[in-house]
Design brief:
The chain is an alpha/beta fold. 28% of the residues lie in helices and 19% in strands. The protein binds beta-D-glucopyranose.
């Protein structure tokens, strides 16, 4: 077939939109041209249910994009989905540190660059749309998917996720997920989260609003229900709040396969596209439209919102970077930079770190994870990548002349070594998206019959080739189910190894891998410890960089308690749960219990002092001095409070932050916006500013007295 040189209706509309025409009016004109079948076809994925499911199970998820809302006759280019957020999940893409690690950088500029790199790799691999912006609040660190989000604080999550989304959207349409209150894993298909107006708007939604206002193209609804209504058919969330209150302009997709229960209701409630298959809506909508149970105006409204967004993002279709960007040297260097910026130094007695290269004749490397590619879980965000620099490989590359001894568990090798590095923590065996067989049984009822004439398996169906061994997610120790953690402690064998290493040497550095808080009763027994997270494919190099002198840039994006009993309750099997105003650091503060390591905590290789802090209207001018002898970086954090508040509220909450770098001896002045509206309370559908005066405090972490003002 020769390609027509005529432009399509969509292309002509896109040109007019680029010249200033209204994208909704242009979209409505395109939808008016569609047949009923074309309109209904825009309300779900383009892949037939059963063949699609089988392909997905055989590894198709990591091989190709998943299309929806393509209308060839009118040139509507639709969307082609692929996921993140640690990298593009198709092709052997660059694997970045997981989002929780990057959250610790407190560096939105860096996060924007990571987003742009992942966006370029997605687009080069054929995607135009990504679900990479996972940003549910970490209500409790045991959440299995903690690694995919940015932490426990709404302001911080919002800033990081907005930067990521802006970076991605240089190349693809981004989707923020999971809307809303999806922060438990095992029970995600059945849990109902009850939340009152204040907790919803003051705690669980401000970060989504921030990203919505930054122009994100799309929203993915969550699997769970909120106040008794499944999120995929929750009008309060999808229309009243998202579109009417926030003025957001974009399209909503369902979470995959099990994201809606009542296909007809979901259309009127604001869900634009069922993803990724022709499934529940394909079974129900045609008849419902004919019988009048489904309003044609709702169908048109949903399709118009989708097409309007495609028009607004028409540049995405025209620009496709070359495949050479996938895992290119520049992106791998960025992954290494991000891993360095994410590492949180938790203890450094002596200081033992940084190490002096010339004093390292013999290095002992201990632990199960010292030489294992450990990129994160095996769920929807996993990226297949064979070239992973493990801690052992990174140390070997950095110290070619040193003797490196390695044992998983023989701590005696620490005895005569110049340094003993113990690499412990979690893998996909301990935490991650829950992909076990029992999860499948929760949504089998939502599938069409396997012999359905249009949506089932055709008689002549040839199954796609099963994934080869090298095509499976390789980040971990094997096929695993993931899920929520049952404990915040390290596995007992890790704690025993740390104790044995500490008994053998006073030069022990513990590097902890994992996606969120780890309770560390052993911390004071070792000289140094750092959070290594799931540090991405260049993680081993980054670890060596930090041990040998690169500034560990990270600060904790959550509080680490002394005991997990200090936190709010977490029941992974709950079918009902109430989310309140307090969790994490806020809950500890309210209870008057000190965190072991507070939110925002992290050490550097130099020392910083606050020199001055002055308010100038809606800005804070802060002077900070590097009083040490090395160049370094710190994170200034602004906490807001209303000491005489009439309302129950967190005693303090983060309202601004800024990463600062300074040369030794230098005092740097920075400006941080002071937005007290983040302390407003939500009462009867309105935001209320209390008469009681707000206060600010600038500090280095949530437990630091810092400097106060009003
Ligand atoms: C996850 C989403 C993901 C989708 C597509 C779902 O199971 O909850 O986060 O984007 O799968 O892989």
């Amino acid at each position: 077939m020769t390609k027509s040189t005529e432009t399509s209706q969509f292309e002509r509309a896109a040109k007019r939109v680029a010249e200033g025409a209204d994208h909704h009016a242009e979209a409505a004109a395109i939808v008016a041209e569609m047949t009923t079948a074309e309109r209904l076809g825009c309300l779900d994925g383009d892949t037939i249910a059963w063949p699609g499911l089988i392909d997905m199970g055989a590894g198709g998820y990591h091989r190709h994009t998943w299309p929806a809302a393509h209308v060839e006759r009118l040139g509507v280019p639709g969307l082609d989905f692929s996921d993140g957020p640690r990298g593009c999940v198709i092709a052997r893409s660059t694997v970045f540190p997981v989002s929780m690690a990057r959250a610790a950088s407190f560096d939105p500029d860096l996060e924007r660059r990571v987003g742009a790199a992942i966006g370029a790799e997605l687009r080069a691999s054929g995607a135009t749309y990504t679900g990479a912006v996972c940003m549910n609040l970490l209500r409790h660190p045991a959440w299995g998917r903690a690694q995919e989000t940015y932490g426990e604080d709404p302001h911080h999550v919002g800033e990081m996720a907005a930067a990521f989304s802006e970076g991605l959207q240089q190349h693809v349409m981004a989707c923020m997920k999971h809307f809303a209150l999806n922060s438990m894993e095992n029970a995600r298909f059945k849990v109902d989260v009850t939340v009152d107006e204040r907790a919803l708007h003051e705690v669980y939604l401000p970060h989504f609003k921030r990203v919505a206002r930054s122009g994100v193209a799309s929203v993915m609804s969550a699997y769970n229900s909120v106040n008794g209504e499944w999120c995929g058919e929750n009008r309060t969330l999808l229309i009243d709040i998202l579109r009417e209150e926030w003025g957001w302009d974009g399209f909503v997709t369902s979470d995959f396969v099990a994201g809606l229960r009542d296909a007809v209701k979901s259309v009127g409630a604001g869900l634009n596209i069922e993803m990724p298959l022709r499934q529940q809506r394909a079974l129900a909508l045609r008849d419902a439209l004919e019988s009048g149970a489904l309003d044609g105006a709702d169908v048109d409204a949903r399709v118009t919102e989708t097409v309007a967004t495609f028009l607004r993002f028409a540049f995405v279709y025209d620009r496709r970077p070359s495949k050479s960007v996938v895992a290119c040297a520049q992106h791998r260097a960025l992954a290494r930079e991000a891993a360095v910026a994410s590492m949180v130094l938790l203890r450094n007695e002596g200081p033992l770190l940084p190490l002096e290269r010339k004093r390292l004749a013999k290095v002992a490397l201990l632990g199960r994870l010292a030489d294992v590619p450990n990129l994160g879980d095996n769920g929807s965000s996993s990226v297949i990548q064979r070239e992973v620099v493990t801690p052992l490989a990174g140390i070997r590359a950095a110290l070619p002349d040193a003797e490196i001894v390695h044992s998983e568990n023989d701590a005696s090798i620490a005895r005569d070594a110049d340094i003993a590095l113990v690499v412990v923590g979690y893998t996909a065996e301990h935490e991650g998206e829950y992909i076990g067989k029992s999860a499948m049984s929760d949504f089998v009822a939502l599938l069409p019959p396997v012999d359905h004439p249009e949506l089932g398996l055709p008689k002549d169906f040839v199954p796609p080739p099963a994934e080869a061994a090298g095509e499976r997610p390789t980040g971990t120790l094997g096929a695993t189910e993931g899920g929520d953690r049952r404990s915040l402690r390290l596995p007992p064998e890790d704690e025993a190894l740390i104790a044995a290493a500490a008994a053998a040497s006073d030069r022990v550095v513990v590097a902890v891998m994992g996606g969120s808080a780890v309770v560390m009763p052993w911390l004071n027994d070792v000289a140094a410890a750092l959070m290594l997270w799931y540090p991405g494919m260049e993680g081993g190099h980054a670890l060596a960089d930090v041990l040998l002198g690169s500034e560990p840039g990270g600060r904790l994006p959550f509080a680490i308690p002394v005991d997990e009993g200090d936190l709010v309750e977490f029941d992974p099997d709950a079918t009902r749960v109430t989310y309140g105003l307090l969790h994490g650091q806020w809950y500890l503060d309210r209870c008057g219990v000190a965190a072991h390591l507070p939110f925002g905590f992290g050490l550097g290789y130099t020392a910083f002092d606050l020199a001055s802090a002055e308010r100038d209207g809606a800005r804070l001018h802060v002077g900070v001095k590097n009083s040490g002898s090395r160049a370094g970086a710190t994170v200034l954090q602004v906490y807001g409070s209303v000491p005489d508040s009439e309302y129950e509220r967190p005693p303090q909450r983060l309202i601004g932050f800024r990463r600062v770098e300074a040369a030794p001896g230098a005092t740097v002045s920075v400006e941080i916006p002071l937005d007290f509206s983040q302390l407003d309370v939500r009462v009867d559908g309105k935001w209320l500013r209390e008469r009681a005066a707000p206060r600010w405090r600038v500090a280095f972490h949530a437990g630091d007295p810092g400097m106060l003002g009003s």
